[in-house]
UniProtKB/TrEMBL annotation, chains A, B:
Catalyzes the cleavage of L-kynurenine (L-Kyn) and L-3-hydroxykynurenine (L-3OHKyn) into anthranilic acid (AA) and 3-hydroxyanthranilic acid (3-OHAA), respectively. The gene is kynU. Pyridoxal 5'-phosphate binds at T115, S116, F144, P145, T146, D147, D213, H216, Y238, W268, T294. The lineage of its organism: Bacteria, Bacillati, Actinomycetota, Actinomycetes, Kitasatosporales. Belongs to the kynureninase family. This is Kynureninase.
Amino acid sequence: MSELSEVSALSELVEKAQKLDAADELRGKRAEFVLDAAPGDPAGPAGVYLDGNSLGALPAHVPEKVADVVRRQWGELRIRSWEESGWWTAPERIGDRIAPLVGAAPGQVVVGDSTSVNVFKALVAAVRMAGEGRDEIVVDATTFPTDGYIAESAARLTGRGLRAVLPDDVPGAVGDRTAAVLLNHVDYRTGRLHDLPRLTAAAHAAGAVAVWDLCHSAGALPVGLDEHGVDLAVGCTYKYLNGGPGAPAFLYVRRDLQDRFDSPLPGWNSHAEPFGMRPEYRPAPGAPRGRVGTPDILSMLALEAALDVWEGVSMEAVRAKSLALTDFFLECVEAYVPPGRVECLTPLRHEERGSQVALRCDDAGDVMKRLIARGVVGDFRPPDVLRFGFTPLYVGFADVERAARVLGETVGA
Amino acid sequence: MSELSEVSALSELVEKAQKLDAADELRGKRAEFVLDAAPGDPAGPAGVYLDGNSLGALPAHVPEKVADVVRRQWGELRIRSWEESGWWTAPERIGDRIAPLVGAAPGQVVVGDSTSVNVFKALVAAVRMAGEGRDEIVVDATTFPTDGYIAESAARLTGRGLRAVLPDDVPGAVGDRTAAVLLNHVDYRTGRLHDLPRLTAAAHAAGAVAVWDLCHSAGALPVGLDEHGVDLAVGCTYKYLNGGPGAPAFLYVRRDLQDRFDSPLPGWNSHAEPFGMRPEYRPAPGAPRGRVGTPDILSMLALEAALDVWEGVSMEAVRAKSLALTDFFLECVEAYVPPGRVECLTPLRHEERGSQVALRCDDAGDVMKRLIARGVVGDFRPPDVLRFGFTPLYVGFADVERAARVLGETVGA
C-alpha cells in the first residue's frame, strides 16, 4: 500500500469505528468495567484488552461487594453467614443466574470446583448413564488439553476406551459402542465454533450422551442448552462471564437426567441431608447433586456480583456485536498488516466463528510481547498463534481499530 | 451448690482466668484478629467465638490484601498477574507456608480444590501405589461423612472393597489385602485425637498406604507428617488456619512417593509443561502434580495473607495453650453446669484430645441456639452434640470462663 492510501485507509477505518461505536447498543456497558490506561504506552489512549477470553475484566462494583463479604460476612457474622448471608445456597443460586446466559431453565446449573473437576464429574456420570454395553468415550481431538487428560482418566476409571475424533467427523464416528461424546463448543486455539445442535443430534442418534465444554462460548454467544437437548455441559466463569481469576466453573445437568446423575465425587455438599452427618450417602435431588465439598465463598460471591453486568443484556445483541467486532478486526488487519505476514486461523463464516480471532505467524510469541508492551493485550498460544478475544460488553470498535493498527506497526517494523 | 459457694466459685474462676491470660505467651496474637462484640448480648462483653473449628475468625490484615488482589491484580494487571502477581505458583507457594505447620519439609504440600476432592485424589492414588494385589480400602468408621462417601466412590472406581473400621481396631484389621487406610486425625464430633504415629505404623506394617485427614488438627496441634512417615494427607484451611470461608484445601504427598502419585484428576495445571498445550499428559514432578485446574485465586490469596498470623508461633505453644483452654473449660463447666445436665464426649486424657470439647445433651440444638443468642458461638452436630472449638491464637481464658458460665445459665434456667 502506498503512503497516501495508507493514510486514507487509516482515516476511513477510524471514522468507521466511530460510527460503529455510536450505533452500538451495548456501548453503555463499557462504563461498568475497570479499563484503565495500559502501562507501556503512556502517550497513547487507554490500553486495549483483548484477553477477556482468558480472564475477563473487573466489573467496577465487584471490589465493594468482595470487601463486604470479607469484612462483614466473614469478619463479623462468621459462621452465621452460611445461613444469614446465603453462603450455603450460593452454588445453585449463582447457577440460576448463569442458566439464562446458556439457554437453560432454572434448577439445572450449579457452580463450584474447577472446569477440569466438572469435566470429570460430567464424563463419569455420562458413561454411567449410557450403561454397561457402551465401552468407548469419544473426545474432541482438538480439545483444550485438560478435557483430554480428564477424559483419559474417566475412561481408565470406568474401564472404557478413549478415541480422539475431529468434531467434523463425530457423526460418522459414533455408534452403538459410544457411551459419551465430549466436545468443545468453541476451539480455544482457532476460535472455531462447532455446530452444537448438529453434533448433539448425532451423539443422540447413536444413543450416546453429549457433554459440551462451553468455556469459550458461555457469555459470548447463544448456546441454547435446553433448546438443543444437550445432556451435560460444563463451562468456566472467568472468561466472558468476568467472574474473576479462577472463579468456580459451572455444571449443567438436564432436568430429566438429574435423577440418573451418579457423581464420582459424592461429597457431603451433594447429600440429600448434608447436615444429617449420616454415614450412608444419599444424593440430593436437582442441581445440588453436582456439588462436592465446601464451596470457595470469596471467589463464588465475587462471581455472583460480576454477573450483575448481564442485567438487561440479550445474548443475541452480544452475538451480533461479537461478529461485528471480529469482522471489523479482520477488515482492519487486512488494511494494516502487510499481506502474507499473518494467516487467519479463525473461520470467516459467521456460523463457524466464536468471539475470538486467531492469527498464525512464526514469531507469534515475540509479536505478542511487543503488542503487550504497547498496551494491546491478547495472548500467545504455542507454537505460533496470536489470540485476540473480543468481549462485546466492554470492547469497542475504536479498540479494535487501534489493536489492528498497532499489530500492523509491530509486525511491519 | 449453694448460692454462696456459687459466688465463690465464680470469683475464683474469674480470677484464675485473669492469671492464665496474663501468663499466656500467645495473648498478643489475639489483636491480629477481628473479634467484635457479638450481637444479641449488647450489655455484655465481646462475644465468645468458639467455632474456629468450623470457620476461623478473620485476621485483621486480610481485607486489605484481598482488596489489592481484586482492584490492582485483577482490575489493573489482569491477565499479567498470572506471572507478575505470582498467581500461577500460588498453590505450591502457599503449600510451603502450610508445610511447617503440619511438620512437613518444603515441596510436599500443594493447595487447591476442596477437602473432598483432595480425599479423592489421595485415596485413588494410594490404591494405585499399593498395587493390584490389594483389594480393600479401610476407612475410619467414625469419619466425617464426606470422607466415607468419597472413599466409597474411590473403591467403586478402582474395583476395591470398602471396610469401615474403628480407628482403635485398625491395627488388628489391616492385612495383606489392605491397599489404603483413610483416617481422621481428630474426630469431628467428639474431638478425640487419634494416635497418628501408631496407626500409621500399623498401616505400614501391613504394607498399606496411610492417608490422613487433618481437617481438625492442622493449626491446632503438632502433626509431624514427615517425622511419622505419613504417606498422604489432606486438610482444610478454613478452620484453625483461618483461611476464610471455603478456602482451598491442601494435599501432602511424601517426597519419595511423589513420582508414584498417579492422580485420578490429571488437569492441565499438573502437567509438566502446562502451557505446552500438548494432547499427551505428562505429570509434573513434585507437589504441583497434585494440582488440577485453574486455582481460585481470590480464596487462595486470602488464605496466603491469613497465614501471616503464624509468624513466630510454635505449634508446641499452640498445643500447650489448647490443652490449657480445654482443661479450663471442663473445670468451669463442672463448676457452673448442674451435675448430669451434659455429658462430656471428649477424652480427658491429653494425648487423646484435639482442640475442641463436645458435650452431649438431649436438647443440644435448642441449647446452642440460646447460647448463640447470648453471644457464645459454638455449633450443634445432630442429634445431640454441642461442639466448642478453642483456637489458641485468639481465644483467651476469660472467654472460656464466660462461655461456660453462660452455658450454665442457659441449661440451668
